[in-house]
Amino acid sequence: MAMRALASATVSFGLVSIPVKLYSSAESSSTIRFNQIHKKDGSRLKQQLVCAQDGEPVPKDEIVKGYEFAKGQYVLFTPEELKAIEEKATQTIDIAEFVPADQVERIYLDKVYYLGPDKGGARAYRLLACAMRETGRVALAKYSAHGKGYLVMVHPMGDGLAMEQLHYADEIRPFSDVPLDEVNIKQEELKLAVQLVEQAASDEFRPENYKDEVRERILELIQRKVDGEDITVTPTDEPEHKIIDIMEALKASIAAGERGEDGKRKPAKRAAKKTMKKTAAAK
């Protein structure tokens, strides 16, 4: 089934303009949502906006928007004033520069969209994708939509292009703010940790190997409830948070991984042997 476009836009750089269409890269409908229901009669509840001062419900025609510039103090805006300060939607993905693909850190990634060629843009679209793939560069651009201005990155994907909405630099919290303790890593610990990593290593990412097991379990329980069953959940033991001997934990983890689920010893991976040799040689 062909995807339905979310919007149309134009990729612009230099004197080149490429008409494109934007497509969602993921399905958001998979989220399970529960409604609030009146227990007494089973009717769905509606939310009301209530004045914080007198506790009375406020009708829609008396609601305006305001910005809190100081504690408890708001400056009010009319719909016309809000429209005037919004970013004008140009529907143009205006490329500012091309940078090496590995220079954009993953922490800046917000949302991903697919770009497809619109009428008359197929050749230029494919040419831009090939040029970026050939140079190993991605495009940083500005894009305006829904009254906001966005920083985006356009990059090759498959035979075409994708657009990633990025966070601005002032939206990113630095990792240096995370409190970290000073710890000295022993060589024996590192050797065992590397062995444990290599024991569970794979050479490629296979997303199809992973499923949302929580969602599947909830849907199963919902169906049982629809069928008239009473749901009882078996209590699970709380995980123990205790200080452990890291060496013993590593050894036990490696031994469990070597035995496998059936309790039989599994053959060691070739990659693990190579890593062990490199680690031993480095000592």
Care to describe what's here?
The chain has 283 residues and is α+β, with helices and mostly antiparallel strands. Among the domains are: 7-26 and 87-171, Ku70, Chain: A, Domain 2; 187-232 and 244-282, no CATH class. The chain has six helices and nine strands. Strand 7 and strand 8 (148-157) form a beta hairpin. The longest helix has 14 residues, at 122-135.
Total strands: 9
Helix amount: 25-40%
Rg measurement, Å: 28 Å
In the sheet with the most strands, the strands line up as 1-2-6-9-8-7-5
Low-pLDDT residue intervals, each spanning 5 or more residues: 270-283
Order of helices and strands: EEEEHEEHEEEHHHH
Second-tier CATH architecture of one domain: Beta Barrel
Q: Per CATH, what is the topology of one domain? A: Ku70, Chain: A, Domain 2
Number of alpha- plus pi-helical segments:
6
The gross shape turns out to be: extended
Distance N terminus to C terminus?
57 Å
- Biggest sheet architecture: 7 strands, mixed, barrel
Question: What's the CATH class label of one domain?
Answer: Mainly Beta
- The helix-and-strand class reads alpha+beta
| Overall pLDDT score | 83
Assess the beta-strand content as a share of residues. 25-35%
Which keywords apply here?
25% strand, seven-stranded mixed β-barrel, two-stranded antiparallel ribbon, extended, single chain, alpha+beta, disordered C terminus, Ku70, Chain: A, Domain 2
Give a short synopsis of this structure.
The chain is an alpha+beta fold and 283 residues long. 27% of the residues lie in helices and 25% in strands.
